[in-house]
What does this fold into?
Amino acid sequence: MRSHGCFQRCISPGCGATFDIGEVYFACPRCGDLLDVAYDWSVISPPRSLSDFQVRWANRRSALDFSGVWRFRELLNFCPDEFKVTLGEGQTLLLPSPGVADYVGTKRASVFLQYEGLNPSGSFKDNGMAAGFSHARLVGASRVACASTGNTSASLAMYAAHCGLGAVVFVGSGRIAFGKLAQALDYGALTLQIAGDFDACMSRVKEASARLGLYLMNSLNPFRLEGQKTIMYRVLEGLGWEPPDWVVVPGGNLGNSSAFGKAFMELKELGLLKRLPRLAVINSTGADTLDRLVNEKKLAWNGGKYDRRAIADDWKWQDRTGRLPHTIASAIEIARPVNAAKCLRALEVCDGVVRSVPDSQIMDAKAQIGRCGLGCEPASAAAVAGAKLLVEQGVIDRDARIVCILTGHAMKDPDATVGYHTGNYPPGKTVAGARAFANVPIPVADDIEAICEAIDAKR
Ligand code: F0G
It folds into this structure.
């Protein structure tokens, strides 16, 4: 059955099983692969041109037109409007940053930052939650759950409180930044601090959801990713509906990169975009599973015939060697990304590349972004550090148009920021490197002479 011209479909072309939009699955019940939301465009009638969406800018009195997600609803119309949830997400900006371009090593007009920290809970997750909660309401869910490195739990807790649904979040004990934990607690989510890391939380939340009938809000939920497609629509909008040459995004559980690939795949299919940008997914070297799978093991989507065993073998190798992820960019401290297969598809669609950057470069890039007037958390800065690396490697041209996605706000993880500037990192985290842009606070006596001297010394 295909409600509203829309259905769920297994991503594996060899299986291709389809399911009604009202079913709740987090993997294909036939073959176990991931699911997509798919559209019958002849029923949905998408816009004739992307610029048609612009008329909604003027209509701020309509909550759905105001939402940076639902403004594009014809491209993710899986439920009737009465079920759609919004908290004003997606009021985000694409800003040129000549200062960051200098740092990255390109022409000054080349680098744009898509600032997703402006979302109501301070990260890009709100784009996905607006869509995920709409589906949860459509199917009558009463309790929602997720595993999280912090931002998913913050965003889920906020939307659950808004919708009056019960929220259960699984976080790794001592693993999430305080700004994010504070949000989950304050929005009233039942917060389980599991004695393990994100990957442990992820496997437990799947078990608990199956056993207790919780609605799972992690990015293996295909509806959540529909909301995250809109980040790319807003990037296109910011560039006058012209695609950039590169989109650079940090990679953790690989939901964002997967959603971006699907957005571009569909726009091409609809004839709304002729040329697609290239995609760069950036890991931290302390959590570099995708980099290893793609660059060392040469894993590729291969039209859907990707080597499933290579992924399972990598997980087993991690078990055998006791390898655990470790990075100051706690949001992407993930070793078993659940969306690996969809990300491989995105890399094929967008002729993508994968790189890893060390924590020292992530933190230097973060300080540079801050100096240019946009605050972000460490994981977001991996995008800028990755862009710099790709320019140095000659993969990205100096005059290419590059969009780096700043996924989360600076206030999410003040400990990491203060650690970088003072040298006193949070417990359990140290970052080797010169801290090239550290802005060290200066202790001064409560004395006007000493104060003026300290000010003049910095002229
Ligand atoms: N940046 C930030 C700020 C994040 O919070 C995350 C993921 C990512 C990047 C990576 O995105 O998973 O789509 O590849 N945070 C998740 C969480 C895992 O639980 O908050 P991804």
Observations:
- The pocket of F0G is lined by residues 123, 148-152, 219, 250-256, 331-332, 377, 379-380, 407-408 (CB under 6 Å).
- The two ends are 70 Å apart (CA to CA).
- The CA atoms of residues 8 and 37 lie 5 Å apart.
